[in-house]
Amino acid sequence: MTEYADGSVVDGVHYHQFDIVIVGAGGAGMRAAIEAGPKANTAVISKLYPTRSHTGAAQGGMAAALANVEEDNWEWHTFDTVKGGDYLVDQDAAEVLAKEAIDAIYDLENMGLPFNRTPDGKIDQRRFGGHTRDHGKAPVRRACYAADRTGHMILQTLYQNCVKFGINFFNEYYVLDLVMVSDGFGGQKPAGVVAFELATGDIHVFQAKAVIFATGGFGKIYKTTSNAHTLTGDGVGIVWRKGLPLEDMEFYQFHPTGLAGLGILLSEAARGEGAILRNSEGERFMERYAPTIKDLAPRDIVARCMALEIREGRGAGPHKDYVYLDITHLDPAVIDAKLPDITEFARTYLGVEPYTEPVPVLPTAHYAMGGIPTNIQAEVLSDNTTVVPGLYAAGECACVSVHGSNRLGTNSLLDINVFGKRAGNSAAEYVKTAEWVELPEDPAAGVRTLVENARNSNGTERIAIIRRELQESMDRNAQVFRTEESLTEVTEVIHNLRERYKNILVQDKGKRFNTDLLEAIELGFLLDLAEVVVYSARNRKESRGAHMREDFPTRDDVNHMQHTMAYLSGDPMSADAGDHIRLDWKPVVVTRYQPMERKY
Amino acid sequence: MSTATLDSPPAPADDVIPTFTVTLIIRRFNPDTDDEPTWQDFDVEMYPTDRVLDALHKIKWEQDGSLTFRRSCAHGICGSDAMRINGRNRLACKTLIKDLDITKPIYVEAIKGLPLEKDLVVDMEPFFASFREVQPFLIASSKPEKERIQSVAERARFDDTTKCILCAACTSSCPVFWTDGQYFGPAAIVNAHRFIFDSRDEGANVRLDILNDKEGVWRCRTTFNCSEACPRGIQVTQAIAEVKQAIMRGKP
Ligand SMILES: Cc1cc2nc3c(=O)[nH]c(=O)nc-3n(C[C@H](O)[C@H](O)[C@H](O)COP(=O)(O)OP(=O)(O)OC[C@H]3O[C@@H](n4cnc5c(N)ncnc54)[C@H](O)[C@@H]3O)c2cc1C
Ligand code: SF4
Ligand code: FES
Questions:
Q1: How far apart, in whole angstroms, are the C-alpha atoms of residue A44 and residue A215?
Q2: Which 3 state secondary structure label does DSSP give A431?
Q3: Domain boundary at A326, A342, A366, which?
Q4: CATH architecture label of B124-139+155-249
Q5: How far is CA A355 from CA A257, A332, A442, A591, in A?
């Protein structure tokens, strides 16, 4: 066996050794690092500078039943989370989320996060969709916030604290592979990860006792999305290619209020502060669909109602293809104090003045409820119950599952803090006693091939065109409404695009800062994940949460109150997805709440 | 606000929105092959409401895949794509084509004062190193059981400087920074300000000492380039002035 010592360079590949390697420097990754860093030799590897991560784009708030402004408690929060997720939520996980929310907020405040304050100097709270008082009686003020840049403040605060603790960062390193070896008992465990350094084009192997994935979402499988260009699901895709399962991938959230035509998000906080959705007739249509909480119904419901209004001819604008978000009745001083950024987005990108004009909005692909399955210790699962020792996941790339089939607003910033912290602690505990796992011979081989194949791609297909066709087909066929027919169509599109992907053109042949090459590799992950989303969606013959099958319009608790588990089981190039994706079910953890009809 | 769109009318709702050809002249540099940067022209068909970032993507995706720049969020929130556009530091994703004079070519080059790596990409390490040096984190000895109490007015005192996205538009527009790369630069001072004026923080004196250094706030010659460049509308020059005052008069 070759020894790969820390700091050595063998055949041009750099070798590093850390107890814990965290992949991703968004909210989840940095929250994990703050726990793990002081306890074990830890590195954070990120394809972006930490402060560029998309957690910084989050706007509205982070939920916690602090009861600073009105009566509230964590049990109500748990219930709302379970009901909001249309009962596909694992209730033990939801309870952890709601209970630990309170300390998660105090942790952030104590680290320096500048929350907005109440007149008596406490953390202020506001309303958000689906968060209610006493099991649905009325909206409750549960979202802690910092204007409409809560995510920005979280990301900055966590990075500031990483600086304080002297965390090791490897910035602009793209992790492209996870090294798995036999655990000696018929299973597998991680020995490290392999990364591509953007600045030099060099390959680095990070040997580690524990690996935490915190790579965020994959909104770029859709065209209209609130997600960043860099959210291509690399981490989820890497885990998938290792044969590990992905859970509940069919549940993808469409946020009701993206700027029409652009997808840039206008936070639900706007509706929390009183904004109203109106159709072409000026009608507040949500009153018809959700008489109790109206515009503050959960996102899946609001997005569907908007789509219905448009379909029935009540869309606004010259093509009747969007609805309006109206905040003209709010005091401009309130808008400036509480919604400054999103109103500037409307001005900058649509040229609309929200003080006086309603803003054109449309649902935008926003959040992956599904992802890498974990238990409540953030340990990754290799099937319904078996833990992969030393492998963890947290944040949007993971599926615990606290969001079930539809996430409530402000529960993701919460998720990344609660389960990021848990992942950091679990990994730190694990490495105390874990032995080093020996690296296999030439662990960089897979990435070297991937990179060289991409660099030597001299075909005729443009990366951007394949990506665009994928995104357009996903928007058309696997968005708010789905049918067997639409899902079959997009499955075929994906297979054809995969064929064409073999013949792509990468023009940049250089070593340094080769983003052309990386876009090619990222597209590979997008194609893989889009197929899992669609194939899982075809198999779920019911409508639940964000997954609306027009051909199966009701929820079917008898057959489908279960999580989907998808496995890569064959050659992804085979024409029939069924030949390379195996599906299974996993029971939902039910503790307190039996499924009920979801009315608001 | 960096992009003055308040006074421009909403986009016309006509059936076909006209496109037009825009010429971008981009300063290219390939470290693998070039000794010196060179300017290269590209023509692209754009809509008036497109961003400069869209134009760069169009070039990269349809003409020359080797064109290299950083970007992520595409709406002015991640700080990846500060660049010099027609001689001014801006975020490419927040600069609409219609707000530029499109009868002339649009000049695009990397921000100045940081080592050029490739095309529009510079080495950000020196910039982040200055940021880290001002101790940009809350220093507080108390261990409260819940949140620390802070009044609405105390919170408002440092609101402006919490908005920073570390894009470096300010620092790389500063003539002092261009000639003296050791100068902390406006962004680091903005981030020190964010803590110096936070009522919960106890580390102001440490940071004021650091910024009283010969490469600290006294290098600032109040040229206001930084305030003009800031895409978040932060009053950067004012923040620097407040830090200068705090050094002279002690902790605020
Ligand atoms: C516009 C917007 C507004 C939102 N508003 C809210 C809100 O108000 N409340 C709420 O609760 N939620 C909100 N959300 C959701 C929430 O912000 C995200 O789900 C959450 O921030 C994700 O955090 P993360 O740490 O999992 O991932 P991210 O913050 O996306 O971080 C991912 C990290 O992984 C790294 N990475 C990815 N791939 C690789 C790779 N191959 N190699 C190395 N590193 C890699 C990236 O560099 C990055 O550092 C919003 C989301 C959006 C898009
Ligand atoms: S102060 Fe403004 S210009 Fe300077 S780094 Fe921060 S956001 Fe960018
Ligand atoms: S791409 Fe994020 S600021 Fe421009």
A1: 11
A2: helix
A3: A366
A4: Orthogonal Bundle (1.10)
A5: 17, 6, 61, 46
What is the reported pTM? 0.96
Q: How many CA atoms lie within 13 A of B93 on its CB side?
A: 21
Q: What are the Cα distances from residue B170, in Å, to A51, B150, B186, B196?
A: 17, 30, 6, 20
pLDDT of residue A597: 87
Residue A28 and residue A153 in one domain: yes
Kindly tell me the burial class for residue A296, based on how many C-beta atoms sit within 10 Å of its own C-beta (0-12, 13-18, 19 or more): buried
Residue A60: CB partners within 8 Å, gap ≥ 6?
A128, A143, A145, A148, A150, A267, A268, A269, A272, A409, A410
CA proximity to A249, closest of A218, A211, A215: A218
Asked if A163 lies within 8 A of B124 by C-beta distance, the reply is no
Among candidates A571, A23, A567, which has minimal Cα distance to A246?
A567
ipTM exceeding 0.90, yes/no: yes
What does the pLDDT look like over A162-181, one tens digit per residue?
999 999 999 999 999 999 99
Residue A89 at interface with chain B, using a CB cutoff of 8 Å: no
Q: Is the peptide bond before B173 cis (omega within 30 degrees of 0)?
A: no
Q: Are residues A360 and A383 in the same domain?
A: no
Q: For a substitution probing ligand 2, which of B232, B236, B243 has the most ligand atoms within 8 Å of its CB?
A: B232
Angstrom distance (rounded) from CA A150 to CA A405: 24
Structural domain harbouring A226: 15-62+90-119+144-251+367-431
Contact of A186 with chain B, judged by CB distance below 8 Å, is answered with no
Please check the confidence at residue A151 and state whether its pLDDT lies above 50. yes
The pair of three-digit structure tokens given for residue A294, joined into one six-digit string: 């109206």
